[in-house]
Write a structure and sequence with these properties.
- The protein is mainly alpha-helical.
- It has a domain of 118 residues.
- 54% of the residues lie in helices and 0% in strands.
- Helix 3 runs parallel beside helix 5.
- The longest helix is centred in the middle third of the chain and has 23 residues.
- The termini are far apart.
Length: 169
């Protein structure tokens, strides 16, 4: 029998890439983005959401999606924070709140599709098969999706984001 050739899993490849770039990653946990807003980059999707302080500490405790009732209360609170940040002309806070709304949708969808919340096999990094749909989490995802899209459609936010990306990145 021939020797098996070692092939790293998709997850191992991702982890190796992360190890190479983490020191140059745009978002760093030791930066106060309220005091240093010009160091904040919008990025793609939810990037930086679990790193950027003090916003992670202000928004994160309200981020819940266990069931539709909790998701509704959570998304409404985060949406209110989003609007408060906009009133304060705090684009970074508003963008972070928008990212938490987006993440509420994506994580609830993941748990609707995979009961354990694990999308990839820990051993080989391959995507796990879908479980039967969890309607509770799917409903939570719909709630967050609506608030996320409401935030993205906000005219003040859209204008601030365009200006931010043009001026800062």
């Amino acid at each position: 029998m021939p020797d098996r050739i070692y092939k790293p899993s998709t997850k191992q490849i991702q982890n190796a890439r992360w190890d190479k770039i983490k020191n140059t990653y745009t978002w760093q946990p030791d930066i106060d983005y309220r005091l240093n807003p010009k160091q904040y980059k919008v990025g793609k999707g939810e990037q930086g959401v679990l790193i950027c302080q003090p916003y992670k500490g202000e928004i994160g405790p309200y981020w819940r999606f266990k069931n539709p009732e909790i998701a509704q209360a959570s998304s409404e609170k985060i949406m209110q924070l989003f609007l408060d940040y906009l009133k304060q002309e705090d684009f970074v806070g508003a963008d972070m709140a928008r990212k938490y709304l987006q993440m509420g949708y994506t994580r609830a969808r993941r748990y609707a599709n995979h009961k354990t919340g694990r999308k990839y096999d820990a051993q080989d990094g391959q995507e796990l098969p879908l479980d039967s749909a969890d309607n509770t989490k799917a409903e939570s995802a719909k709630i967050f999706f609506a608030k996320w899209k409401e935030a993205e459609a906000n005219q003040k936010y859209t204008a601030m984001k365009l200006a931010w990306k043009s001026d800062i990145g």
